[in-house]
Amino acid sequence: MSGFSVNMRTLLVFLDLTDNIMYILNGVMMAVTFFIFRAVLFAWVLFFKIGWQPCVGLVTGSYWDKYPDQKNAIYSKLSVVSLIVMFFINYFWFYKICTGLMKAVSKFGKGSKTKS
Fold it and tell me: How far is residue 23's CA from residue 105's CA, in Å, rounded to a whole number?
């Protein structure tokens, strides 16, 4: 879902339209969709579906029960490790998106005041 706004940003930069209101609106859309579909969704999967629910008994079977034999247990642990790595990478990129958005909004705000 956030891929569209990332590609749109690339196109706007290529066309040198970074001073346009579409660039700001696209940045807001990118931040919102990235937060919902990457940051929140990954946190929900990682903490509530894999970690928290089996601990408090909200589900009948644990995530780890799906891999009972030792051969598949390494794959389940590897998938959890990869989800944890992607979780931190997503929050790093969300931080970068937010700082870039704040910089673009402040630049756009200063530009509109000087033109008036």
Answer: 10
Euclidean distance between CA atoms 46 and 64, whole angstroms:
13
Which alpha helices (DSSP H) does the chain contain, by range? 3-14, 21-34, 41-43, 53-56, 70-115
Q: How many CB atoms lie within 10 A of CB 67?
A: 16
Residue-wise pLDDT tens digits, 14-32: 999 988 899 899 999 999 9
Give 77-101 pLDDT, tens digit per residue: 787 788 888 889 999 999 999 998 8
Q: Please, are residues 116 and 78 in contact by the beta-carbon 8 Å criterion?
A: no
Domain residue ranges of the chain, discontinuous segments joined by +: 3-115
- Structure token digits, residue 80: 């959890």
Alpha-carbon span 6 to 18, nearest angstrom: 14
